[in-house]
Amino acid sequence: MLKNTYEMVGTLFDRIVELECKVNKLEQEMNRLKNEINKMNFFSVYQDWVKAFMNEVIKKLGGVDKWLLIESGLHYIRNDMEMTDEERQCVEDSKRILGDKDIGTICSMTL
């Protein structure tokens, strides 16, 4: 009888440890999901501002076609590949525009 009691206590202890591990994993997952939600909330708050900023940058670059050349140029830079002269020029223009003080007017927009 006493032996059965010790076995039951041992089994119960093992189950408690197992449950504590599962609770810890659930807490970690819950914290990870909260962080993801916070990131999404952050970006949703600034989404309109980012859209206005990007539209202003694209306009100063000369349109969507130039923006697409910048995207492909940056892709080639990241992958250590050669760019066309037009892509290289657009990337240089974007560096100049992003360093331009006039772009600050869009940065001072109220959210």
Automatic annotation (TrEMBL):
Superkingdom to which the source organism belongs: Eukaryota
Coiled-coil zones: 9-43
Keywords: Coiled coil
Protein name: Uncharacterized protein
Native source organism of the sequence: Rhizophagus clarus
